[in-house]
Automatic annotation (TrEMBL), chain A:
Keywords: DNA damage, Nucleus. Pfam families: HORMA. Residues 12-195 form the HORMA domain. It comes from the Eukaryota. InterPro entries: HORMA_dom, HORMA_dom_sf, Mad2-like. It is found in: Nucleus. This is HORMA domain-containing protein. The lineage of its organism: Eukaryota, Viridiplantae, Streptophyta, Embryophyta, Tracheophyta. It comes from Daucus carota subsp. sativus (Carrot). The keyword Transcription regulation does not apply. One of its GO terms (cellular component) is nucleus.
TrEMBL record, chain B:
Mg(2+) binds at D362, D459, E460. Its cofactor is Mg(2+). It holds the Pfam family BRCT. This is DNA repair protein REV1. The keyword Transferase applies.
Length: 205, 1110
């Protein structure tokens, strides 16, 4: 799907696989939530499971560039979480899909690509049947990709985060309710995907 | 089409005006307002019917229309229309043409109810489905509905009723607190009162009736099979509401005699013409009804939740009585049983002893005569026993007495047939208590006269009187018969001959109330004319086969060579035929055949509406089977689920609620581990049931059979969970008096003799007798004289436990204790010598008189005591203890390996560590080899000061302070630390957790362990409150630390664990408590954790958890 440079470090390899996977997964989430009309997507096979690919170039590019921009940081293990946030007009988040990433920096042997892909595949499978767990969103809601860094990243060309800006989306005051979707932990990559909803008790802000 | 119809109407009207004779001035014509539609072929033909309609002011429709037609006339309907009656008839009455004719003849419009088409009428009168026996709760809808109705003020119902064209009897509303439940029922019947839901009845008490108002649809007057769904639509549903009341309040009812409680419920339907035919009895399953109505009357507060169909079914089943009677007999006469164990095989040949004499005793029509033994006025009248005496008469006669037999009444025929043969026939119900009593008396007499008794059934036995003191066997037989009659009031017949076969045949001739002796030289003569069918083992099939060969008597059978018989009928059968035809029978008296399989089957009254009913029924069936297995003291490995499926072309069964024509399907499954546990059975049964892929509505019978039986003795520790409970329960359930308690004092001797111990086991209070009755302790080992121990134990029980126990004895315990006190010390010391091998009572001379038992018997009871005693352990003089143990023990340990625990997990660690080194070494050596490793990995340093270190560590592990959470110590290492800790715990559940860790493979995920815990679930822990708290704490810590380990990497796993824990918490209060403790803690942890606000969806879990009273 994407061109791959020959990279020596296992982290780089892992990060590339991960980014590619997240691109597909995020597209699937957006499709799942029905923010855009189904016509904006086309069915594709990825890792031999049905996935959706954005047809609209803007959407496709947004997802693609956001994530490839993260690649260097992920490789260095700076990114803690990547979240897909759905929010309403008041910028109050309604639902969040969170990828919690752990890239083992100490790992230095060969990455078993097939194993990794096999594990990641199960995320997509699980995601496709998770619609019932999600909330119905209001019509005029929007979404964005957010990433959480362990430390504030350096905004320079080398890190590739230049396209990233601080978010204006508000945070929930109450701890959210978490619904796990899928987790994997293997070497050198651990990924957890879960949903967050505003807690029942607390107010939205 | 409309035009055509219009034209037809015009034609009809024109014809009517010419033919209409104008009923003169007598008012309206007969069929005024009636408009019929004739469907298919009828007699008289549709044209004739049209003529009647013309003449009498009715209308006749050539084409069916929902709006114009009022009645459908037809003689026959195809199946498809019957099945889909609603869409066919649009809810209109479907009547036979005779309705028209009869109405004309009667010159008035007759109520059509009795003219309903037979096909429909049978269905609507309907055989109530099994669902009717279940509480409303079972169906989610009717539950809602019931609550609605309850919430509704009664007046509201009353207000509605007139509108709804209902007939409400005053009495029904007479009581203010009368509770009514409405249920949409799939019966046309306008009303049905169900006395069967014992549930509500009991909870509302005596004065309150339970009434169920059945809504039927007057508009359609058809069975609303799907009405459960539709019922929400009250507009349709409540058109015809009627109430009725239990027949108990109907003095005028002829059938309300004592049997009335059993099944007769008459509906009252005064006045309303359209419903005047609705009076019929509910014809319920008489069994559940009888018991339930009894409940109403006596207002006994027993089963609150349970419809108890299965239980009641078996409670009232004769076959079940006979089947389970065997277990009872075994318990009552264990000596005979065990004494003849060696001669188990029926093929076992005995050296033919010419002198042998066998007596076959058989009670005359046992099931009848027992019931009427106290009713002299019935003695010479024809009487039959039957479970039901309802007017339908489709119940089967189970047994008839001789006067009745003279009329041709036999077992197995329908009551109605029997009554037609013998109009005076009196039908009596079963009386199982009496049967039991008489059977016991009967066998008591037999055992008195003869020591070789083989029980065949509750009323039939063989005696080997070859070496009897009384030479004259005829005389002996007379004595026995007389004694049986004097004691029980029932007659017995006796056959005497040289072997069992001939004795049995002789009894044939002896009956009724006689005896017959066939001496050896008369055998041949006797057999000559004997029809082959009389020989045991020859049934219809064999008889037919032989008849085809022109063999009718034994004489003819003897002409066939053994070889040719064997060739044709197989080796065994051929051999049997050859032998029997010559009067040869090599079986010896005393063989009591072990049952090869145990099971329960219900094929009467089984009707399901949905899967839920079915599953529920299955659960009850499993309970029954489990009880039977436990009763027989066996566990099985192979499980067979049999299902009777209605044949597609089978109509309603002749026998009321019977199974009818069925296909028999079965699936079976063999598991590696024998079980008798309800839960296990249920799981297996569900699995098997799923294999059938069957529509539950088609099921007419189900049976669960367990084979590959193993003695529960060799079973596993899993069963010991019940010890404490059974100990307390059995203490309470059997009533004891002083004399029986005395037998405990003498129990020492009895215990030494395993058999006797068994015999008196029901009388024993505590300990080994109960253990042995449950079959957990190897009977070969010398049972410890716990009678001595018990007193000591009881004496030292914590006050609350003691008082509880005392309550169970209704206070006798205290007085008994005080009496015994003097002797106690003596007996304790006396007991010690013999009891050492398994139980070592230690009596340190302490001021508070602490009595401490080091018990190596793997018994939960003692484990509990250790926990209780935890606080006093320190005070026990270790040296004193060890000295005594060492002194007494020595060599005896090795002899009694079988009393050693299976695993270290059953030993109190603290006790172990208080033992001196040499003892400990010896003890560990005796453990099974594979367990040794676990011993070595014992985290507690063995060489350290036993008292301090072990105790402190132990308690530390148990109570695991909250501060230790951050240490994550439980999940360090491989295997993680908790595994060892849990293994050492005295809590069975924790032990299981530890065991499961190994079983679940190397991954060691908590979820898989929980999953396993769920599958081999332990309902009872047998723990004291202290132990329980500790165990819960342990579990909580395990969870907390697990979450900390996993929260960074695998929330899914945590989530899964909590789901599982929640499910477990529904099963047991232990997990519920643990769950409730863990939940808030987890939330606080996750709030404080570094990752931002990772709070799992626990609220949701929590909300789903219905709080249960513990």
């Amino acid at each position: 799907m994407y061109k791959r440079k020959n990279q020596s470090s296992p982290q780089g390899e892992t990060a590339r696989i991960l980014v590619e996977f997240m691109e597909v997964a995020i597209t699937s989430i957006v499709f799942l939530k029905g923010v855009y009309s189904p016509g904006a997507f086309e069915r594709r096979r990825y890792m031999n499971v049905v996935a959706h690919k954005a047809r609209h170039p803007q959407l496709r590019d947004y997802i693609h560039h956001s994530l490839t921009g993260l690649l260097p940081s992920i490789e260095k293990g700076l990114v803690e979480r990547v979240a897909v946030v759905f929010f309403n007009k008041e910028n109050i988040p309604l639902e969040r899909f969170v990828f919690k990433l752990t890239v083992n920096q100490a790992y230095d042997s060969e990455v078993e690509k097939t194993d990794l892909e096999f594990s990641l595949k199960s995320f997509l499978t699980k995601l496709s049947v998770s619609e019932s767990l999600t909330k119905v969103l209001p019509k005029d809601c929007r979404w964005q990709i957010m990433s959480y860094f362990h430390s504030l990243p350096q905004f320079n060309a080398s890190t590739g985060v230049e396209s990233w800006i601080p978010t204006d989306i508000q945070q929930w005051q109450q701890p959210p309710l978490i619904t796990p979707i899928k987790s994997m932990s293997s070497e050198p990559l651990g990924v957890q995907l879960y949903m967050e909803h505003p807690s029942l008790s607390g107010s939205q802000l | 089409m409309a035009v055509k119809n219009q034209k037809l109407h015009e034609q009809f009207d024109a014809a009517a005006s010419t033919t209409f004779q104008g009923e003169l001035s007598s008012g309206k014509p007969i069929f005024h307002g009636v408009s019929i539609f004739v469907d298919g072929f009828t007699i008289p033909s549709s044209q004739e019917l049209r003529g009647y309609m013309l003449k009498h002011g009715g209308r006749f429709e050539n084409y069916f229309s929902r709006h114009r037609v009022t009645h459908i006339i037809c003689s026959n309907l195809p199946d498809s229309k019957i099945k889909n009656l609603r869409s066919f008839s649009a809810g209109l009455p479907v009547l036979k043409p005779t309705w028209v004719l009869d109405s004309v003849a009667a010159n008035k419009l007759l109520s059509w109810h009795s003219y309903q088409l037979d096909q429909i009428a049978t269905e609507t009168q309907g055989q109530p489905k099994l669902s009717a026996f279940f509480p409303l709760k079972r169906s989610p809808f009717s539950c809602n509905y019931a609550t609605n109705a309850i919430g509704q003020p009664l007046s509201k119902i009353e207000d509605q009723t007139p509108k709804l064209d209902a007939v409400v009897t005053n009495n029904s509303f007479g009581e203010g607190e009368t509770r009514k439940e409405t249920e949409q029922c799939d019966v046309l019947s306008d009303i049905q009162l169900k006395v069967d839901s014992a549930v509500n009845k009991n909870s509302y008490g005596e004065s309150q009736f339970l009434e169920e108002i059945t809504h039927a649809n007057i508009e359609t007057d058809i069975p609303l099979n799907e009405s459960l769904i539709k019922a929400k639509d009250e507009e349709i549903g409540c058109n015809d509401v009627k109430l009725c009341e239990p027949s108990t309040s109907e003095p005028g009812d002829a059938t309300s005699d004592s049997i009335l409680a059993e099944n007769e419920l008459k509906f009252i339907s005064p006045g309303e013409p359209s419903t005047s035919h609705s009076t019929y009895s509910t014809d319920k399953h008489n069994i559940s009804e009888s018991s339930n109505s009894r409940i109403v009357m006596s207002s006994s507060h027993s089963t609150l939740e349970d419809p108890n169909f299965v239980e009641n079914y078996f409670k009232h089943s004769r076959l079940h009585f006979i089947g389970t009677w065997r277990n009872r007999y075994r318990k009552l006469f264990p000596a005979t049983y065990s004494g003849t164990k060696g001669t188990n095989s029926s093929l076992h040949t005995r050296l033919t002893d010419e002198q042998a004499t066998v007596i076959h005793v058989d009670m005359d029509c046992f099931f009848v005569s027992v019931v009427i033994r106290n009713n002299p006025e019935l003695q010479n009248k024809p009487v039959a026993v039957c479970h039901s005496d309802n007017p339908r008469g489709t119940a089967e006669i189970s047994s008839a007495n001789y006067p009745a037999r003279a009329y041709g009444v036999r077992a197995g025929i329908f009551v109605r047939d029997a009554k037609s043969m013998c109009p005076d026939l009196v039908i009596v119900p079963y009386n199982f208590e009496a049967y039991e009593e008489v059977a016991d008396q009967f066998y008591g007499i037999l055992h008195k006269h003869c020591n070789k008794v083989q029980a065949v059934s509750c009323d039939e036995a063989f005696l080997d009187v070859s070496d009897s003191k009384i030479e004259d066997h005829q005389c002996l037989a007379s004595i026995i018969r007389k004694e049986v009659f004097d004691t029980t009031g029932c007659k017995a017949s006796v056959g005497i001959a040289g072997n069992m076969l001939m004795a049995r045949l002789a009894t044939r001739n002896a009956k009724p109330d006689g005896q017959c002796y066939i001496p050896a030289d008369k055998v041949e003569e006797y057999l000559n004319e004997l029809p082959i069918k009389a020989l045991p083992g020859i049934g219809h099939v064999l008889e037919d086969k032989l008849k085809r060969r022109e063999v009718k008597t034994c004489k003819q059978l003897r002409l066939i060579s053994k070889e040719s018989l064997q060739k044709e009928f197989g080796l065994k059968t051929g051999d049997m035929l050859w032998n029997y035809s010559r009067g040869i029978d090599n079986r010896s008296v005393g063989a009591f055949q072990e049952s090869k399989s145990i099971g329960a089957e219900v094929n009467w009254g089984v009707r399901f509406n949905n899967l839920e009913h079915c599953q529920y029924f299955l659960l009850n069936l499993c309970k029954e089977v489990s009880l039977r297995l436990q009763g027989a003291g066996v566990q099985g490995r192979t499980f067979t689920l049999k299902v009777k499926k209605r044949k597609t072309d089978a109509g309603d069964p002749v026998k009321y609620m019977g199974c009818g024509d069925c296909e028999n399907l079965s699936h079976s499954l063999t598991v590696p581990m024998a079980t008798d546990d309800v839960d296990g059975l249920h799981r297996i049964a569900i699995k098997l049931f799923d294999l059938f892929h069957i529509d539950v509505k088609e099921i007419r019978g189900m049976g669960l059979q367990v084979s590959k039986l193993e003695n529960a003795d060799s079973g596993h520790q899993g069963n010991q969970k019940n010890f404490l409970r059974s100990w307390l329960i059995s203490a309470s359930s059997t009533n004891r008096d002083q004399c029986e308690v005395k037998s405990i004092a003498e129990g020492k001797n009895q215990n030494a003799d395993g058999n006797l111990g068994q015999q008196s086991c029901t009388n024993m209070i505590v300990g080994s007798d109960i253990l042995s009755s449950e079959g957990h302790v190897n009977r070969d080992s010398v049972l410890p004289p716990l009678c001595d121990l018990d007193m000591g134990v009881i004496e030292n029980l914590p006050p609350d436990v003691f008082s509880e126990l005392n309550n169970r004895y209704s206070g006798k315990l205290i007085s008994f204790m005080s009496k015994r006190k003097g002797k106690l010390a003596e007996s304790n010391i006396g007991g010690m010598g013999t009891s050492v091998p398994s139980v070592v009572p230690l009596r340190p001379c302490k001021a508070e008189k602490t009595c401490r038992y080091i018990c190596f018997v793997c018994s939960e009871i003692f484990a509990c005591f250790f926990l209780i005693k935890q606080s006093t352990v320190k005070e026990v003089s270790v040296t004193a203890a060890s000295g005594m143990v060492a002194g007494n023990n020595g060599s005896s340990f090795s002899r009694n390996i079988d009393v050693m625990p299976y695993s270290l997990s059953q030993i109190d660690v603290s006790v172990l560590h208080q033992l001196p080194e040499e003892m400990k070494a010896e003890f560990l050596e005796l453990l099974p080899a594979h367990r040794k490793q676990e011993c070595n990995s014992d985290p507690v340093p063995a060489e350290s000061c036993p008292q301090q270190s072990s105790d402190s560590e132990y308690t530390h592990n148990l109570s695991g302070s909250r501060g230790s959470i951050s240490a994550n110590e439980y999940w360090l290492g491989n295997p993680p630390k908790w595994v060892e800790n849990f293994k050492m715990s005295s809590c069975l559940v924790l032990n299981i957790f530890a065991d499961n860790y190994y079983k679940s493979g190397s991954a060691g995920k908590l979820s898989s362990i929980l999953q396993r815990a769920r599958s081999n679930f332990v309902p009872s822990l047998g723990l004291t409150p202290d132990g329980l708290d500790d165990a819960i704490l342990c579990l909580c810590n395990l969870f907390k630390q697990y979450i900390e380990v996993k929260i960074e990497t695998d929330i899914e796993e945590i989530y899964l664990c909590f789901r599982l824990l929640k499910r477990l918490s529904k099963k047991s209060t232990f997990f519920l408590e643990a769950y409730n403790v863990i939940l808030p803690e987890i939330q606080s942890i996750s709030n404080n954790l570094s990752i931002e606000a990772l709070k799992l969806k626990f609220e949701e879990i929590f909300q789903n958890q219905a709080p249960r009273a513990s």
